[in-house]
Amino acid sequence: MYRHSLRDVLIILAHSLCDEDVIGLGAACCLVDILAFRQLGYRITDEAYIKTEYEVMPAGMSGALQELIRDGVAIVYADSGGRSHLRVSVNPLEEYAFSKRELNLIQVVVAMTRDGGVARISSLIQATNGWQETRIYCAIPGSRLVDFVALPADKTPGH
Asked: pTM score > 0.90 for this model?
């Protein structure tokens, strides 16, 4: 079993989803952890997630972004609409030791994001008991985050 930091997962997602904004990357990280738990038996980052009005955000997102900038691995920039984006300067496949199964899960989330955008990811996250039971700006309990209300195990994306 491998565990990775939020920083590692952000790097690989930002590398694969270069046009996605930081909010979208946060939601994608959450879905990676949900699918990993359901399919591998553990969450890849073991990160806590905070429910916002419409999305989830990793609790450590600000610190992870600051660390990436400080280490010279990434920059954060704003597009013309004011949305923040993350651009990484390393190839995560060369730098980080993800297992083949972890990489496959991450690629499923990348494909889902490209196909349906953050709205698709958000609808899946919002179909969890954790989302539905948590107040805005509170941490979603990890044990409830991975428990889908609307999707049986055989209908979970990437399964």
From this structure: no
